[in-house]
Design goal:
This protein is of the alpha+beta class and 241 residues long. It folds into two domains: 89 residues, Alpha-Beta Plaits (2-Layer Sandwich), CATH 3.30.70.580; 137 residues, 2-Layer Sandwich (Alpha-Beta Plaits). 22% of the residues lie in helices and 27% in strands. It is built from five helices and ten strands; from the N terminus they run E-H-E-E-H-E-E-E-H-E-E-E-H-H-E. Strands 1, 2, 3, 4, 5, 6, 7, 8, 9 and 10 form a ten-stranded mixed β-sheet that branches. The two termini are 15 Å apart. The mean pLDDT is 96.
């Protein structure tokens, strides 16, 4: 079965189930157990960080065909908390795996650069509070496109042999009071999207020149990167198969 979820990550310690802390995976498993009487192994397309959100998280799992996809959506939503919702469900083709079958993942990071702090969008953006130079951020983001070793921008816990990934696109655009960074890549290493967002914020605030982002990338040295951006601004938008 293939299921698409959205969730507000503010109240979660991330996607992946853990001994301590509320997680999206644990809530989904609890709902599946209530609906089916079983707790299948679930696989997500992306393991979102604590506080990060999703509009299009894809999950796959095995289950018998006694419940139609339409009924499954309603039944799961009846048992899930209000900050998680199943959007769609469908029978997946043979061999489908939410993570390994995915070709690209699209993430969005939102900055708010007006002076006033957010009320309605609190927990859904990074309040910068000073005007961002979107043109400089866009120029800096161009260096990220292509296949790279992301050592400078990913967590040190990632195995060195697995840090090369392709970035399909990296775009920065203004949407009213918000500045949005959109990243599309074959896969996102731990901390990658938020580290990139932090580096581009330094460029947007004039603390670093646009070429600095590419220089840090090529250096393959995590010590050179900027602070990691807060998780609340990050959303998994779409998984492309």
């Amino acid at each position: 079965m293939k299921v698409v979820l959205e969730y507000d990550g503010s109240g979660f310690a991330g996607w992946q189930q853990q001994a301590n802390g509320r997680t999206v995976e644990a809530e989904l498993k609890r709902a599946l157990r209530a609906v089916t009487g079983a707790e299948p192994k679930v696989y997500a397309a992306g393991r979102t960080d604590a506080g990060a959100h999703a509009e299009g998280q894809v999950v796959s799992f095995e289950m018998d065909g006694r419940i139609t996809p339409q009924r499954l959506v309603a039944a799961l939503n009846a048992h899930l908390p209000k900050d998680v919702s199943v959007l769609t469900a469908e029978v997946a083709p043979d061999g489908f795996h939410a993570r390994y079958s995915a070709r690209w993942r699209r993430y969005r990071y939102r900055y708010l650069d007006r002076r006033a702090r957010p009320a309605l969008e609190r927990g859904r953006c990074w309040h910068i509070g000073v005007p961002l130079d979107v043109d400089a951020m866009s120029e800096a983001a161009n260096a990220l496109v292509g296949k790279h070793d992301w050592t400078s921008y990913c967590s040190a816990s990632e195995p060195p042999a697995g840090r090369v990934r392709e970035m399909r696109s990296a775009k920065v655009a203004r949407r009213g009071d918000f500045v949005e960074l959109e990243l599309v890549a074959e896969g996102f290493l731990r901390g990658l999207a938020r580290s990139i967002a932090g580096a581009l914020a330094d460029v947007g605030r004039g603390r670093k020149p646009p070429e600095w982002v590419g220089e840090v990338l090529r250096a393959r040295d995590r010590r050179l990167a900027a602070r990691t951006a807060p998780a609340g601004g990050l959303t998994l938008v779409e998984v492309i198969y």
